[in-house]
């Protein structure tokens, strides 16, 4: 990918398009609602037993 703003814009369009049409689907290991669940999310992260992203929603 070429450096600079043009390359970043092309990458952003690619990602947005893939997420919109379902071509790209992020792998989510867990979703935790509220900052009071941050310890649970952190435990999962430290366990090395997850595949994908850990999401904490406010």
Entry keywords:
two-stranded parallel ribbon; 58 residues; alpha+beta; single chain; 2 helices
Please outline what is shown here.
This protein is α+β, with helices and mostly antiparallel strands and 58 residues long. It is 47% helix and 19% strand.
pLDDT < 50 stretches: none
Which bin fits the share of residues in helices? 40-55%
Mean pLDDT: 93
Number of strands: 2
Order of helices and strands: HEHE
Question: If strands are numbered along the chain, what order do they take across the biggest sheet?
Answer: 1-2
End-to-end Cα distance, whole Å, is 35 Å
Beta-strand level of the residues, as a percent range?
15-25%
Largest sheet: 2 strands, parallel
**CA-based shape:** elongated
Structural class: alpha+beta
* Whole-angstrom Rg: 16 Å
Tally of contiguous helical segments = 2
Describe the protein:
The protein has 58 residues and is an alpha+beta fold. It is 47% helix and 19% strand. The protein contains two helices and two strands; from the N terminus they run αβαβ. The chain has helices at 5-21, 38-47; strands at residues 28-33, 53-57. A two-stranded parallel sheet has the order 1-2. α2 (38-47) links the parallel β1 and β2 (53-57). The longest helix has 17 residues, at 5-21. 0% of the residues are buried.
